[in-house]
Amino acid sequence: MTVYSTDFEGVVIDKVGDKLSETQKKILSLMQQNSSVSAQSLSEEIGISKRKTEENIRTLRDRGKIVREGNAKSGYWKVLD
C-alpha cells in the first residue's frame, strides 16, 4: 500500500512509502564508491546482518534505485538515482 501526503490544497507532494531508510542510503553510497561490493562487505561496513542487507538490496532493486550488471560473481552494481 502506498500512502500519499498532500498539501493544504490537496496537491500530492510526496509518496510516503517511497522514502529511503538511512541503511538504504548508506548502501547506495557504498555502492557508488565501490560498484563491485558484496552483500557481506556491506553488512560488515554498516553493522547489520547479511540477511538484512540482502533485504535492503532487494527493496532498492524493486524501487528501481539499483540494478545488477553481469553475473553474481564478477558483476557490479549500477546506482540509477
Q: Would you kindly provide a written description of the structure presented here, covering whatever features stand out?
A:
With 81 residues, this protein is an alpha+beta fold. Helices cover 41% and strands 19% of the residues. It is built from 3 helices and 4 strands. It has helices at residues 22-33, 39-46, 50-62, and strands at 4-6, 12-15, 66-69, 76-79. Strands 1-2 form a two-stranded antiparallel sheet. Helix 2 crosses helix 3 (50-62). The longest helix is centred in the C-terminal third of the chain and has 13 residues, at 50-62. The radius of gyration is 15 Å and the shape is globular. The protein starts with a strand and ends with a strand.
Largest sheet: 2 strands, antiparallel
Radius of gyration: 15 Å
Unreliable parts: none
Oligomeric form: single chain
List strands and helices in order, with pairings.
Elements: E1 4-6, E2 12-15, H1 22-33, H2 39-46, H3 50-62, E3 66-69, E4 76-79
Antiparallel strand pairs: 1-2, 3-4
Question: Which short descriptors sum up this protein?
Answer:
81 residues; alpha+beta; two-stranded antiparallel sheet; 3 helices
Give a short overview.
The protein is α+β, with helices and mostly antiparallel strands and 81 residues long. It has helices at 22-33, 39-46, 50-62; strands at residues 4-6, 12-15, 66-69, 76-79.
